[in-house]
Write a structure and sequence with these properties.
This is Gp28/Gp37-like domain-containing protein. InterPro entries: Gp28/Gp37-like_dom. Pfam families: Sipho_Gp37. There is one protein chain. It is built from six helices and 23 strands. The longest helix has 20 residues. Strands 1, 2, 3, 4, 5, 6, 14, 15, 19, 20, 21, 22 and 23 form a 13-stranded mixed beta sheet that branches. The chain has a three-stranded mixed beta sheet with strand order 9-13-12, with helices on one face. The protein has a three-stranded mixed beta sheet with strand order 17-16-18, covered by helices on one side. The C terminus is likely disordered.
Amino acid sequence: MPRWDVWPRDADLGRTFDPVSQWTSLTLVERFNQPDSWTLTGPSSALSVFEAGMGCILDRDGEQVTSGQVKTLQRSAQVDEDTGAVEDVMTVAFESDLGDVYSRRTYQDPTDEITTTETFDVAYDKRTGAAEDLILGYIASNLAPAAPIAGRRLTSLALPISLGRGGTQTVSARMDDLGDLVAPLAEAANLHITIRHDESTGTPRLLVVLEDVPDVSADVRFGPVNSAATGLVTGWGYTLERPAVTDVIVAAGGEGVARLYARYADPAARTLWGRRREGFIDQRQTDDIDEIAAAGEEALEDGATPVTTWFTVADSADVQYRRDYGVGYRVGVELPGLPDAVSDNVVREVTTTVDPTSERVSMVVGTPGATVNSTKQAQRLARANARLNLIERSK
């Protein structure tokens, strides 16, 4: 049984307390390019050390797994009617330090603080470069200690030197969530972005880390019982939702009868669902054809069929989490009846449940907690479902 240590951390990142003892359960969800989360439950006498603004560092057998901040404090007391004893229990929920990246918007001009009603001099913070350069550049401008606006700086954050990983991309940012902006860039570059509690310099800091995520699918393969896979698929599924829009009407510049309109459509989505659903976008600030088209295409993409696919898998003696693969790794998935083109073989989430006598790990391969909006993937799933239904009827 591995040893898990929970180190309380004060608002200044200091370890001012010994590891918490007597907690009864820990549930940790590690995520690929999204903040980890975990809950710690135990007697209030043990967990009341945690207060608003604090955080903790989670170690497993002396190795840091994640670190983060208190998100929720919950305490309850219940009297046992037979014995009169009071059970005073506390549950503390945490979010990993990567959550700080999701606490900022990407200003189109990061040097211009918004005070009262005003306009920016530029429409977008448009940048071109390697994906890693863009990730670190946008974080530097909107969150890091050298961010142009002092009130937006997280002074404890440290950025690494970019290695220029990932292909060249062009990004136009305008009030995007900073985390939602950099996460797709990291994934496109096969990078896992995290923020770690770091004490290597003697002063605690939050260090942005970008790590390569390898493809181990040739050696780490999950499949059903009696397959040649080294790990076991314990469940799978997918969800399709009706699209929010199939046709977008963009109203651009002009007044009255001179106002310019354009319509952008997704015929494949209409065909798949057998209905037309119209949406409206107000773009009165422009008559530029490219901007109008970009608004229409973005609205279609946002409103397309939400698709979620997932697999749950279990470790075996031959395949172990943390030893053979980790969050973000590409693993092999052998699932009869579901085509490879549908499945996303990236390890998206790993849930670890710990109590005083056991540690249980389950993984989800796919897109849990998020959706991919894709008419093409929806069509593949619909065709796969038809084939699976045909197989079931033939049994």
